[in-house]
Amino acid sequence: MIRRALTDRVKAAAAAFPAVTITGPRQSGKSTLCRALFPEHDYVNLEQPDLRAFAQQDPRGFLGQYPDGAVIDEIQRCPELPSYLQGLIDADPRAGKWILTGSQNLSLLASVSQSLAGRTAILHLLPLTRAEVCRFGHYPLTLDEAMLAGGYPRIFDEQLAPADWLAAYVGTYIERDVRSVSNVGDLTTFQRFVELCAGRSAQLLNISALAADAGIAQPTAKAWLSILETSFIVTRLPPFHANIRKRLVKMPKLHFYDTGLLCWLLGLRSVDQLRQHPLRGAIFETWVVSEILKHRANQGERGGIYFYRDRQGTEADVIVQFAHRYRIVEAKAGHTIAPDMLHAARRVATALGPDQIHDIVVVYGGDASQDRTDARVLPWHELDGQPWAVGRPG
User: Fold this and answer.
1) What's 336's DSSP letter?
2) What is the mean pLDDT of residues 235-239?
3) Contact (CB, 8 A) for 290 and 383
4) Is 256 exposed, middle or buried (CB count within 10 Å of its CB: 0-12, 13-18, 19+)?
């Protein structure tokens, strides 16, 4: 197992809280991380039908088997269990006794927040960052290879063909999660809906248009989109809002957490296909956004990341809040540094005002870096080396 960037935060949380809850998409490495960090804990996986039935039918008896605590995997499969854990924790509040994991964010957090408020730390383990990918013996060397492979650990740990593994992932996990979260009657239509979402990654999210293209009602589209968010497949990047004299766009942008999955849903199976694809720029923008989101999650940060677009067409792909100032980030998929790369970001900086700006960063698909008077131009493979957490700008 490689060292995950979240390791230190998990250890710190286990030293301070009776329980630690780790959420994230299926196959992001939650079980592997927990078993490596807490080898002395008993391990139980509620995906196993007999154990799940025991926990559901006799939660007190189930938990009583573990007087010294345990790692309980996929706890969202038994949403009543945190209520029983509350009493045990209050009776024995030893730090790090209970380690909980789950792959459905909304349902798990609803259960945990009601029962274990103040008793558990909540952390998110997303797919691998670029720096984590590079810790494996074999890893993608080029940008297109990196975007096509994505960041699910098993692909790199077992040196699997990304397209083969992702095909199984979609069939096994996405469809199964759909059945467990909501009564989706037509999985074929749902699959088409997911593919349509892929075609809209890095675009403004117009749910009415998405529903019409999928041939479903708007409430259904909203419900299905929530399922994808719940399963950590997609996220909505909120628009930037501030007290400035500009009419700003109010729709969020849609992004996928993993570009490997995004590419697979778009039908891209090779680097050559990706290089020539008209959505390559959007895929790279999603890659940049997901890398920043993963880095911030590994630092325990939530929120504080937006995009900017006003009614005059001035836009920035990402705005990251650092205390009371902002970092403007532009994603450019080209391999060479072009003179106009900074134009949009500079216009946004002017709109916000110089006292609001920490700096400007352009991330592009090439290999050289430049430090300008008012901005930095970073090659794609150096993005993860930058500090992205709130209050810690470089």
Assistant:
1) S
2) 96
3) no
4) buried
Task: Report the chain's mean pLDDT, rounded to a whole number.
Answer: 91
pLDDT, average across residues 179-208: 86
Considering the entire predicted model, what is its pTM? 0.93
Under CATH, which number does the domain 298-385 receive?
3.40.1350
Give the pLDDT confidence score for residue 392 in this predicted structure: 43
Average confidence (pLDDT) over 16-39: 95
For residues 327 and 393, the answer to whether their CB atoms sit within 8 Å is yes
Contacts of residue 191, defined as CB under 8 A and 6 or more positions apart, other chains included, come to 170, 175
Q: How far is residue 26 from each of residues 75, 91, 104, 110, measured CA to CA in Å?
A: 13, 32, 9, 18
- Per DSSP, what are the bridge partners of residue 362? 330, 377
| The CATH number fitting domain 130-283, selected from 1.10.10.10, 1.20.210.10, 1.10.3470.10, 1.20.1300.10 | 1.10.10.10
Q: Hey, what CATH topology would domain 7-124 get? A: Rossmann fold (3.40.50)
Give the C-alpha separation, 124 to 128, whole Å: 12
Is the separation of the CB atoms in 93 and 120 below 8 Å?
no
Question: Domain segments of the chain: what residues?
Answer: 7-124, 130-283, 298-385
3-state SS track over 90-130? HHCCCCCCEEEEECCHHHHHHHHHHHCCCCEEEEECCCCCH
Q: Give the pLDDT confidence of 49-108 residue by residue, as tens digits.
A: 999 999 999 999 999 999 999 999 998 888 889 999 999 999 999 999 999 998 875 556
